[in-house]
Design brief:
homodimer, alpha/beta, Helicase, Ruva Protein, domain 3, Dna Topoisomerase Vi A Subunit, Chain: A, domain 2, 2 domains, 4-stranded parallel β-sheet, 9 helices, 6 strands, about 45% helix, binds zinc ion, DNA repair (chains A, B), metal-binding (chains A, B)
């Protein structure tokens, strides 16, 4: 066996990535050390930089390196619309449709009782306060059309209705069971137009 | 859109890992930043440490942090046997069998003309010199039983035969614990030819 302290540590660390088992981690470590050390150095610096500087926008909760993200600060966005999505990737998918010009609230997750993720973890209180601030006229629920995404949308909708608001939901043009970031942009755009 | 310079850079850097596309990279970045920053810091340090300290054993070419790896230095190993494997992971698999007590030569790859990997990249000259050093009595070819692994074994065998040596190859055969009717026919045919 080779002397593999730093190598074993690297393989163990790579297994901290979601979806990476021991075989994949071995392949990744071998590839980086044998064929692409610059990529290893680049990834090392990118991880440190992101872990040190990326936090959550204090208004919409998405990832940003500033106190408030550029979307929330953008004066051209329609402040009367607030779109609720699960993740920054979902937000990116919405943006790429070019069909939405309002603001966002990014939950950074979804209700998942089995994983211990409840309303407090997703900032529902802050979302409800935001929805009632007098500026927001419409809340569009764009959580994923999965069981957990639907449950999340349902609980948010109930909370908003209790405050006299009537949220809309992306139309079911989005195939049931799929996740937004994998849906083609035209479908998302139609679902936005047909929101109910 | 969020302000994602450090985030975009991280996603781009994660795509430098083999088998990781943009969707996987987004999921990894989200997971690390949202749920496991210690894992991000740990991976960052492990990458830097490995890239800085891991190089190749000057005798067997496997990864090590020293000039010569602990296997090559181990006085209890049988110096008359030299096992040729493709990667450190293959070497580990051989070690875990507990059935081999000799030394190794780790090619750190396999012949792959389409990828520009030739005999010089795999250290064939050094392997042939080693095999002829008078200490080595048997060279066991344990490259993978894939098209490229077989081709690599063939070329090494030809080189050794030209020097008057007769290498051995791991037997091809029916995997232990498997039932004949589920084994592919090529494997059965090889097992029949290699019967003992
Ligand atoms: Zn924001
Ligand atoms: Zn060695």
């Amino acid at each position: 066996m080779s002397d593999t302290n730093a190598l074993d540590t690297l393989i163990q660390a790579l297994r901290g990535l979601p979806g990476v088992g021991v075989k994949s981690a071995q392949r990744m470590a071998f590839h980086l050390l044998q064929h692409d050390r610059p990529a290893a150095q680049f990834l090392s610096r990118a991880l440190q930089q992101a872990a040190d500087t990326v936090h959550h926008c204090e208004r919409c909760h998405t990832f940003t390196q500033d106190a408030v993200c550029s979307t929330c600060l953008d004066e051209r966005r329609d402040r009367s619309q607030l779109c609720v999505v699960e993740t920054p990737a979902d937000q990116s998918a919405m943006e790429r449709t070019g069909a939405y010009k309002g603001l966002y609230f990014v939950l950074m997750g979804k209700l998942s009782p089995l994983d211990g993720v409840g309303p407090n973890d997703l900032g529902f209180k802050k979302l409800f306060d935001r929805a009632c601030d007098g500026v927001v006229q419409e809340v569009i629920l764009a959580t994923n059309f999965t069981a957990e995404g639907e449950a999340t949308a349902y609980v948010i909708a109930e909370g908003l209705k209790a405050r006299g608001l009537r949220p809309t939901r992306l139309a079911r043009g989005v195939p049931v069971g799929s996740e937004l970031e994998y849906v083609d942009l035209g479908t998302i755009a139609h679902a936005l137009v047909d929101r109910r």
